[in-house]
Design brief:
The chain has 187 residues and is mostly beta strands. It has three domains: 62 residues, SH3 type barrels (Roll), CATH 2.30.30.30; 59 residues, Nucleic acid-binding proteins (OB fold (Dihydrolipoamide Acetyltransferase, E2P)), CATH 2.40.50.140; 57 residues, Beta Barrel (OB fold (Dihydrolipoamide Acetyltransferase, E2P)), CATH 2.40.50.140. Helix content is 0%, strand content 53%. It is built from no helices and 16 strands. The strands form three sheets. A six-stranded antiparallel sheet has the order 1-6-2-3-4-5, with no helix packed on it. The radius of gyration is 19 Å and the shape is flat. The chain starts with a strand and ends with a strand.
Amino acid sequence: MKISGVDIRPGNIIEYEKGLWRAVKIQHTQPGKGGAYMQVELKNLIDGRKNNVRFRSAETVERVRLDTKDFQFLFADGDQLTFMDKLNYDQVALDKDILGDAAAFLQDGMDVVMELYDERPISVQLPDTVEALIVEADAVVKGQTASSSYKPAVLENGVRVMVPPHIGAGTRIVVDVYSREYVKRAE
């Protein structure tokens, strides 16, 4: 399926230069002069190479349709992650690298969607948001306005995120897995 270069999202698998690439990070840029473009960091799914590419809105790329299956994360053993097929209970062990930065947000028993290309696992999609516990948060600096000031905090998985001043250690929050941003306080 052809998509515009500015419609690429993190996690998308595209065919580029005769290879399969996953979009890792994207940045939409609209310069004062000239047309807007999408700066995309791509990671080759076969050999792990990385590449930064600019896609203009007029350019199209082939988004690869992969077979998807529901899996459940079981456990991590070093750099190997073990998942179980929810239909036939087959287990699959994959390198942690296949998830990239999102691997830090894996939780035991988490339901994920595995994408397969010719029956070979290519990528794992986590839920867009997860709940996490803040274990460490900086103190609020007096005099900062509440509207735009955020402070750093460390989650139970070691990931650093910026949170509003009223959020402290011991609070459960909802975090966007791919942008690593605070979404809201957990219910």
